[in-house]
Amino acid sequence: MSTQVLSIANQKGGVGKTTTTLSLGAALARLGKRVLVMDLDPHACATIHLSFFPGTFTWSALDIFKGGEVRRVIYKQKSFDFVPSHIQLSDLESDLKDVPGKGLILTNWIKKISTDYDYILIDCPPQMGVLLVNALVAADQVIIPIQTDFLALHGLKLIFDTMRLLNRVLKRPIHYRTLATMYDRRARACRRVLKLLRQKMGARMFSTVINTDTKFREASAKGKVILDYAPKSRGALEYMQLALEIIKA
Q: Which of 19, 127, 198, 209 is deepest in the core (most CB within 10 A)?
Protein backbone atom coordinates (compact mmCIF):
# COMPACT_ATOMS: atom_id res chain seq x y z
CA MET A 1 0.00 0.00 0.00
CA SER A 2 1.30 3.45 -0.88
CA THR A 3 1.38 6.13 1.78
CA GLN A 4 -1.96 7.81 2.39
CA VAL A 5 -1.95 11.47 3.40
CA LEU A 6 -5.04 12.47 5.39
CA SER A 7 -5.54 16.17 6.06
CA ILE A 8 -8.04 16.92 8.82
CA ALA A 9 -9.50 20.33 8.02
CA ASN A 10 -12.38 22.65 8.77
CA GLN A 11 -12.40 26.43 8.61
CA LYS A 12 -14.36 26.59 11.85
CA GLY A 13 -12.71 25.93 15.18
CA GLY A 14 -14.02 23.74 17.97
CA VAL A 15 -15.35 20.94 15.77
CA GLY A 16 -13.02 18.17 16.94
CA LYS A 17 -10.26 18.63 14.37
CA THR A 18 -7.31 18.09 16.70
CA THR A 19 -9.09 15.34 18.64
CA THR A 20 -9.77 13.55 15.36
CA THR A 21 -6.18 13.88 14.16
CA LEU A 22 -4.64 12.50 17.35
CA SER A 23 -7.27 9.84 18.07
CA LEU A 24 -7.38 8.55 14.50
CA GLY A 25 -3.58 8.49 14.37
CA ALA A 26 -3.45 6.40 17.54
CA ALA A 27 -6.20 4.08 16.26
CA LEU A 28 -4.39 3.44 12.97
CA ALA A 29 -1.20 2.73 14.90
CA ARG A 30 -3.05 0.21 17.08
CA LEU A 31 -4.10 -1.55 13.90
CA GLY A 32 -0.45 -2.04 13.00
CA LYS A 33 -0.02 0.93 10.67
CA ARG A 34 3.07 3.15 10.60
CA VAL A 35 1.73 6.61 11.36
CA LEU A 36 3.08 10.16 11.30
CA VAL A 37 0.98 12.98 12.76
CA MET A 38 1.79 16.59 11.85
CA ASP A 39 0.56 19.76 13.56
CA LEU A 40 0.36 22.60 11.03
CA ASP A 41 -1.84 24.84 13.14
CA PRO A 42 0.07 27.81 14.65
CA HIS A 43 -2.24 27.54 17.67
CA ALA A 44 -0.41 24.24 18.33
CA CYS A 45 -3.31 22.47 20.07
CA ALA A 46 -2.09 19.00 19.08
CA THR A 47 1.46 19.93 20.07
CA ILE A 48 0.44 21.11 23.54
CA HIS A 49 -1.91 18.14 23.94
CA LEU A 50 1.11 15.85 23.59
CA SER A 51 3.08 17.94 26.12
CA PHE A 52 5.40 19.58 23.60
CA PHE A 53 5.70 22.95 25.29
CA PRO A 54 7.64 25.97 23.97
CA GLY A 55 11.32 25.62 24.76
CA THR A 56 11.19 21.83 25.22
CA PHE A 57 11.91 20.94 21.58
CA THR A 58 14.17 22.33 18.86
CA TRP A 59 12.76 21.31 15.51
CA SER A 60 9.19 21.82 14.28
CA ALA A 61 6.97 22.04 11.21
CA LEU A 62 8.36 25.52 10.70
CA ASP A 63 11.66 23.97 9.58
CA ILE A 64 9.87 22.12 6.77
CA PHE A 65 8.90 25.45 5.23
CA LYS A 66 12.31 26.98 5.98
CA GLY A 67 14.12 24.20 4.10
CA GLY A 68 15.74 22.69 7.18
CA GLU A 69 16.86 19.15 7.94
CA VAL A 70 14.26 16.70 6.61
CA ARG A 71 14.01 14.17 9.45
CA ARG A 72 14.97 16.14 12.55
CA VAL A 73 11.46 17.57 12.77
CA ILE A 74 10.07 14.09 13.46
CA TYR A 75 9.81 12.98 17.10
CA LYS A 76 9.13 9.39 18.16
CA GLN A 77 6.07 8.96 20.38
CA LYS A 78 4.34 5.99 21.99
CA SER A 79 1.65 5.52 19.38
CA PHE A 80 2.96 7.43 16.36
CA ASP A 81 5.70 9.73 15.15
CA PHE A 82 4.97 13.44 15.50
CA VAL A 83 5.92 16.79 13.96
CA PRO A 84 5.13 19.64 16.39
CA SER A 85 3.87 23.07 15.43
CA HIS A 86 5.51 26.44 16.03
CA ILE A 87 3.92 29.83 16.69
CA GLN A 88 6.00 31.39 13.90
CA LEU A 89 4.09 29.34 11.34
CA SER A 90 1.66 32.25 11.45
CA ASP A 91 4.36 34.42 9.81
CA LEU A 92 4.75 32.20 6.75
CA GLU A 93 2.15 34.09 4.77
CA SER A 94 4.51 37.05 4.47
CA ASP A 95 7.76 35.05 4.60
CA LEU A 96 6.79 32.95 1.57
CA LYS A 97 5.00 35.71 -0.32
CA ASP A 98 7.39 35.72 -3.29
CA VAL A 99 8.56 32.10 -3.11
CA PRO A 100 7.71 30.14 -6.29
CA GLY A 101 5.90 26.84 -5.77
CA LYS A 102 5.11 27.68 -2.16
CA GLY A 103 1.93 25.59 -2.28
CA LEU A 104 3.95 22.41 -2.92
CA ILE A 105 6.52 22.71 -0.12
CA LEU A 106 4.76 20.16 2.08
CA THR A 107 4.09 17.80 -0.83
CA ASN A 108 7.78 17.78 -1.74
CA TRP A 109 8.83 17.20 1.89
CA ILE A 110 6.41 14.28 2.26
CA LYS A 111 7.89 12.61 -0.82
CA LYS A 112 11.23 12.41 1.00
CA ILE A 113 9.86 10.56 4.05
CA SER A 114 6.72 8.84 2.76
CA THR A 115 8.22 5.35 2.47
CA ASP A 116 8.57 5.28 6.27
CA TYR A 117 4.81 5.53 6.83
CA ASP A 118 1.49 3.99 5.85
CA TYR A 119 -0.51 7.04 6.94
CA ILE A 120 0.42 10.69 7.42
CA LEU A 121 -2.20 12.76 9.27
CA ILE A 122 -2.14 16.56 9.18
CA ASP A 123 -3.92 18.76 11.71
CA CYS A 124 -4.71 21.82 9.58
CA PRO A 125 -5.08 25.46 10.61
CA PRO A 126 -8.60 26.91 10.28
CA GLN A 127 -7.44 30.00 8.40
CA MET A 128 -7.23 30.08 4.63
CA GLY A 129 -3.57 30.62 3.71
CA VAL A 130 -0.35 28.98 2.60
CA LEU A 131 -0.43 26.32 5.36
CA LEU A 132 -3.96 25.14 4.62
CA VAL A 133 -3.27 25.17 0.88
CA ASN A 134 -0.16 23.04 1.39
CA ALA A 135 -2.10 20.54 3.50
CA LEU A 136 -5.01 20.27 1.06
CA VAL A 137 -2.76 19.93 -1.98
CA ALA A 138 -0.69 17.21 -0.28
CA ALA A 139 -3.74 15.19 0.80
CA ASP A 140 -4.96 11.97 -0.73
CA GLN A 141 -8.10 12.56 1.28
CA VAL A 142 -9.40 15.49 3.32
CA ILE A 143 -11.36 14.53 6.41
CA ILE A 144 -13.77 17.28 7.48
CA PRO A 145 -14.98 16.94 11.08
CA ILE A 146 -18.36 18.60 11.52
CA GLN A 147 -19.86 19.24 14.91
CA THR A 148 -23.52 18.22 14.81
CA ASP A 149 -24.66 21.78 15.35
CA PHE A 150 -26.28 24.15 12.84
CA LEU A 151 -23.60 26.81 13.35
CA ALA A 152 -20.92 24.30 12.31
CA LEU A 153 -22.43 24.03 8.84
CA HIS A 154 -20.98 27.47 8.04
CA GLY A 155 -17.45 26.11 8.41
CA LEU A 156 -18.35 23.35 5.98
CA LYS A 157 -19.26 25.92 3.34
CA LEU A 158 -15.95 27.72 3.84
CA ILE A 159 -13.80 24.62 3.38
CA PHE A 160 -15.85 23.61 0.33
CA ASP A 161 -15.25 27.06 -1.20
CA THR A 162 -11.51 26.70 -0.56
CA MET A 163 -11.34 23.25 -2.16
CA ARG A 164 -13.39 24.48 -5.11
CA LEU A 165 -10.85 27.24 -5.76
CA LEU A 166 -7.93 24.81 -5.56
CA ASN A 167 -9.63 22.30 -7.85
CA ARG A 168 -9.51 24.89 -10.63
CA VAL A 169 -5.72 24.61 -10.77
CA LEU A 170 -5.00 21.10 -9.51
CA LYS A 171 -4.48 18.15 -11.86
CA ARG A 172 -6.79 15.98 -9.73
CA PRO A 173 -9.74 17.10 -7.61
CA ILE A 174 -9.42 17.01 -3.84
CA HIS A 175 -11.08 13.90 -2.44
CA TYR A 176 -12.92 14.49 0.83
CA ARG A 177 -15.24 12.84 3.33
CA THR A 178 -17.09 14.36 6.25
CA LEU A 179 -17.17 13.09 9.83
CA ALA A 180 -19.93 13.88 12.31
CA THR A 181 -18.46 14.79 15.71
CA MET A 182 -19.67 15.83 19.16
CA TYR A 183 -22.95 14.06 18.60
CA ASP A 184 -25.49 13.91 21.43
CA ARG A 185 -28.36 11.64 20.48
CA ARG A 186 -30.45 13.10 23.33
CA ALA A 187 -30.49 16.51 21.65
CA ARG A 188 -33.11 16.98 18.94
CA ALA A 189 -30.93 19.58 17.18
CA CYS A 190 -28.05 17.11 16.92
CA ARG A 191 -30.32 14.46 15.46
CA ARG A 192 -31.67 16.94 12.89
CA VAL A 193 -28.19 18.06 11.82
CA LEU A 194 -26.96 14.47 11.50
CA LYS A 195 -29.96 13.57 9.35
CA LEU A 196 -29.38 16.66 7.19
CA LEU A 197 -25.68 15.85 6.76
CA ARG A 198 -26.42 12.29 5.71
CA GLN A 199 -28.93 13.51 3.16
CA LYS A 200 -26.54 16.11 1.72
CA MET A 201 -23.28 14.16 1.89
CA GLY A 202 -24.40 10.64 1.04
CA ALA A 203 -21.34 8.45 0.37
CA ARG A 204 -19.12 11.45 1.14
CA MET A 205 -19.86 10.97 4.83
CA PHE A 206 -18.30 8.35 7.09
CA SER A 207 -20.77 5.95 8.63
CA THR A 208 -18.88 6.33 11.92
CA VAL A 209 -20.26 9.04 14.20
CA ILE A 210 -18.18 10.43 17.08
CA ASN A 211 -20.33 10.97 20.15
CA THR A 212 -19.60 13.36 22.99
CA ASP A 213 -17.43 11.71 25.64
CA THR A 214 -15.94 13.31 28.76
CA LYS A 215 -12.93 11.01 28.39
CA PHE A 216 -11.64 13.21 25.56
CA ARG A 217 -11.26 16.13 27.95
CA GLU A 218 -9.76 13.96 30.68
CA ALA A 219 -7.22 12.48 28.26
CA SER A 220 -6.20 15.95 27.10
CA ALA A 221 -5.61 17.05 30.69
CA LYS A 222 -3.27 14.08 31.13
CA GLY A 223 -1.38 14.81 27.89
CA LYS A 224 -2.60 11.58 26.36
CA VAL A 225 -4.79 10.47 23.47
CA ILE A 226 -8.03 8.79 24.43
CA LEU A 227 -6.91 5.36 23.19
CA ASP A 228 -4.06 5.39 25.72
CA TYR A 229 -6.05 7.00 28.54
CA ALA A 230 -9.36 5.14 28.22
CA PRO A 231 -9.10 2.49 25.49
CA LYS A 232 -12.50 0.99 26.26
CA SER A 233 -14.39 4.29 26.30
CA ARG A 234 -17.02 5.12 23.70
CA GLY A 235 -14.79 7.74 22.07
CA ALA A 236 -11.82 5.38 21.76
CA LEU A 237 -13.95 2.62 20.25
CA GLU A 238 -15.53 5.02 17.76
CA TYR A 239 -12.14 6.20 16.50
CA MET A 240 -11.08 2.57 16.15
CA GLN A 241 -14.21 2.08 14.06
CA LEU A 242 -13.29 5.10 11.95
CA ALA A 243 -9.76 3.75 11.42
CA LEU A 244 -11.16 0.45 10.20
CA GLU A 245 -13.54 2.27 7.88
CA ILE A 246 -10.61 4.18 6.36
CA ILE A 247 -8.42 1.09 5.98
CA LYS A 248 -11.21 -0.89 4.28
CA ALA A 249 -12.15 1.93 1.89
A: 19
Rounded to an integer, what is the distance from CA 45 to the centroid of its chain? Answer: 11
119-123 vs 141-147, strand pairing mode: unpaired
Enumerate the domain spans of the chain. 4-248
Topology, domain 4-248? Rossmann fold (3.40.50)
Band of residue 1 on the pLDDT scale cut at 50, 70, 90: low
Give the containing element (helix H, strand E) for 189.
helix 188-201
Per-chain mean pLDDT for the chain? 92
Could you give the CA distance from residue 197 to residue 149 in angstroms, rounded to a whole number?
10
Query: Are 193 and 232 spatial neighbours (Cβ–Cβ below 8 Å)?
Result: no
21, 153, 141, 154: which is closest to 82 by C-alpha? 21
Q: Is the pTM of this model over 0.90?
A: yes
Chain segment 165-191, per-residue pLDDT in tens: 888 888 888 899 999 999 999 999 899
